[in-house]
Amino acid sequence: MDAYTIPAQTRIGHVHLKVADLDRATDFYCGLLGFEVTTRYGTQAAFISAGGYHHHIGLNTWYSKDAQPASKHGVGLFHTAILYPTRKDLAVIFNRLRTAGYPFTGASDHGVSEALYLNDPDNNGVELYWDRPKELWPLQADGSLEMYTRPLNLESLLKELER
Questions:
Q1: Which of 24, 75, 122, 145 is the most exposed, fewest CB within 10 Å of its CB?
Q2: For the segment 108-121, what is each residue's pLDDT rounded down to a tens digit?
Q3: How far is CA 125 from each of CA 21, 77, 118, rounded to the nearest angstrom?
Q4: Would the pTM count as exceeding 0.85?
Q5: CATH number of 19's domain
Q6: Domain enclosing residue 56, as ranges
Q7: Which CA distances in Å does 68 have to 18, 49, 121, 137, 161?
């Protein structure tokens, strides 16, 4: 088979999550993170977005109503990553979650990005992050990316709110 490279403009269109309680999931993704409901199918599904897109995240209870979270050590989605446009936007959501007392599972500087980690009410992993400008991404001697995981300077992140 001939080699194929996916077009550079290709993006992940949306993530669809199985949840145990639709209202609880909607409260988290919309009430806390700020997504907007674009459509809802009764008590079984909701589609939510940022900026009026048809949906970035689908939430449903079709096979999972009142179910227990998936095993941490089983197969499945590791996390849904939500990309914020600027570092200040990441600081705003960090401060919002911190003020609400919502628990974080981590905060990392990956060189190419800075990320906050938490779990939604169904214990699905969520990464909130922003990408540094591409020209600032660290490179190895051979020109490949040098991604790493270092502690994120949260004090520096919060200083973005003063700008």
A1: 75
A2: 999 999 999 999 99
A3: 16, 8, 6
A4: yes
A5: 3.10.180.10
A6: 12-65
A7: 11, 26, 11, 40, 38
